[in-house]
Amino acid sequence: MREKLATLAMLIQLAKLVIEMRKAQIAFFKNRLQGDLRRSKQLEGQVDNLLNGMKFPDESPEMKQMEIGNL
Question: Which residues form the domain of 51?
Answer without folding.
Answer: 2-69
